[in-house]
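The freezer alarm interrupted the setup, so I double-checked each line after restarting. Inputs confirmed:
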Amino acid sequence: MAATNTEVWQYGTVVEVGSVATNIQRIVLAPELPVNAEPGSHIDVRVRIDGREDRRSYSVVESNEGGRRLAISVLKTPLSRGGSIFMHTLQPGDQLEITQPLQNFPLRVGAARYILLAGGIGITAMINMARILKNLRLDYTLVYAGRSRAAMAYLDELQQLHGENLVVHVDDEGTPLNVRQLVASATTDTELYMCGPIRLMDAVRRAWTEARLNYPNLRYETFGNSGWYQPEEFIVKVPTLGLEIRVGQDNSMLEALEDAGADMMFGCRKGECGLCEVRILELDGTIDHRDVFYSTRQQTATTKMACCVSRAVTSKNLLTSDPPTAPAVVTIAVP
Amino acid sequence: MTAVSAQSSTTNKVLGYPLNVWYVAAWDKEVTRNPLSRKVAGRPLALYRTEDGKAAALADACWHRLAPLSLGKTVGKDGIQCPYHGIVYNSAGRCVSMPAQETINPSATVPSFPVVERYRYVWVWLGDPTLADPDLVPDMHQLDSPQWAGDGETIYAPCNFQLVLDNLMDLTHEEFIHSSSIGQDELSESEFVVTHDDHTVTVTRWMFNIDAPPFWLKNMRDKFPGFEGKVDRWQIITYRSPSVINIDVGVAKAGTGAFEGDRSQGVNGFVMNAITPESDKSCHYFWAFMRNYRLDSQLITTQLRQGVHGVFGEDEAMLTAQQAAIDANPDYEFYNLNIDAGGMWVRRLIERQLESEGRLVPLA
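Predicted 3D structure, all chains:
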């Protein structure tokens, strides 16, 4: 049936937890109102962070018994916004509020060839898709890239299930993914589905465009949680509201503005729709654009930003881990 | 919602419709570069053809504000443009253009449903797309075979689709509502044989040495000018899951061996019926009458289509009145007769299909 994204909130009971890789916890939930999860679907979960409620999206890795058991997998990052730390505390018997499987990333049956690309924890969105493609005996390659084997969840299971259809790239084994080569292997009737860090997805998007491949055949999902830089604390000034606030490492600029009482407009809260756009008046630092709403031209112009996911950073070089001396400051106008 | 057990009585007045099946969405000629709006199994669809002539079926609601895509127009090689804010989707349902911004929101898709074009129909699969095997399209080969000629129409029937299946699986009703064309006393007097397997139900009835009713006398005279005399008449009704019924019908000069397999002294037609649920209480009833004699006569094709149009108009009136009476008498149940055997097997097969989809639920 066609996907419906009308959220049905319900309780899900944790029935199983276990580690599947370094800092990755597999959590099996039994929802009150089971619905089978299509490949590409996710559930939203209400999490409690420092006493306040928030929600997070997690891909459904496995849907068993018609959705009576839904498995998700959660990566705990040192710079987590707090959601993953909460999720890692869950134990069997715990209950949490969840939605039914929601679908923003449908797998289309009928392409001549498929490439599924997973970077790190992005594998969670690909496992179910890969299984379906295998069952349908379609032409597919699952490409799984990670920093080290220990950090790559489900690697053994995937190797067993997909055999030669699985291609693994491991940074610390000297076999990193070459995005250009990968995209060069795509033909005009190949559909590429990807989920992973924004740097990876951006590189693929650029290579895809350069190769003049059909853009709608490039499919990706972003939960807006990765950037070009490590998140830092930074300062936001809103002169019209007389606000000067700190955005902590583990919350978003939109959340900080809301907490400070600014009446903010927003839509998806994951960098896709552009409704939370603010205008940049002044900038001391660099903008880490984590959205997929703006074009490269618009991002480079640095006149606007999607404040739900994008951040200000001091770092002039990508991915430096040097601690900043003084926080970046962005002065904005809000609508 | 609570699932009902498999021992259900098979006499639900409103039977649900399976989804992991192929339904006829439209005649091939109806699907053009001009989008067509049609609801199938509760799902509004926008049907159109790409520049290459391939039929496409998308949900008839733009991702953005749900404006009906069927009011829009086809653009480019395989796109359809929302008439409201100009968002364009390709035939896979992927957004390919968002006019008011420089990028495309990656979530912007509308459901695209598997489509097969076969036997002059466009078939659509609304259930789990990973199960949409084109080999599961029920056989209706007479519709586009060079050995058969004919044509048909669509009836919009304001009733649960099962009422149409009931109607076609028991043709004793011909004696009463089609008395001026194909009805005759022998229909309810003669024996019938019912067989079934997992996907088909067959009801066979032979009537020997009878007068041909007006419709069949005309057909005999088309093939055998000036024909007079008794005939042997047959009706072999074959249901194919989920909602196709092909009826092998005909008459032959009495005693010339039609029952044994030699139909050369008779006329043979196939009534091809595909009943597509639209909602719980409405359906699209696609029918055609195909014949295997005088294939080159457009006159006969037109006469047969008009003749069957008249006959099925009588069914349409009854089905409409029956659904109205069902709705007006919610506290009365259905009861079954021996003549319902074919229809009861159909109900059982459909209920098994619903059960396998986890969708056997009581409907109001």
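Quick read of the result. Chain B has six helices and 18 strands.
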